[in-house]
Amino acid sequence: MFAELQCVVLDCPDPARLARFYRAMLGGAVDRPDPRWEVNQDWSTLHLPNGTVLAFQRVADHRPPRWPDPAHPQQFHLDFAVADLERADEQALALGATVLHDGDGRSWRVYADPAGHPFCLVRHSAPDAPEG
């Protein structure tokens, strides 16, 4: 091993707005002082409770992916485990997410964040919970 993941960076038109969107979903601290980077109008960060850092970078001509259109590929997406998929759906939509795919009754749904990045909410069962 010769490298360590520092953060995941998402391009977007409004870094501060997208940082606040993900903070409302995941918790954490927006733009916490960190010697690794400078926070400004073009760069915002979210330090998550588990230590992961999401960063948001302004791109003037941001063109969001159009999942599942291969002409505008998603390039990557984030999966978030949730205990109650219905409640998480309501909360994500209230924050400004849009549904891209309702999962067809499965244990996951696909959304776009306010900048158009796809993400999934995936129902997570406790390991010792009976299935059914």
From TrEMBL:
Positions of the VOC domain: 4-124
InterPro entries xref list: Glyas_Bleomycin-R_OHBP_Dase (IPR029068), Glyoxalase_6 (IPR041581), VOC_core (IPR037523)
PROSITE patterns in the cross-refs: VOC
UniProt xrefs under Pfam families: Glyoxalase_6
CDD domains, alphabetized: VOC
PANTHER family registered for this protein in UniProt: CONSERVED PROTEIN, HYPOTHETICAL FUSION PROTEIN
Annotated protein name in UniProt: VOC family protein
Provenance organism: Streptomyces pactum
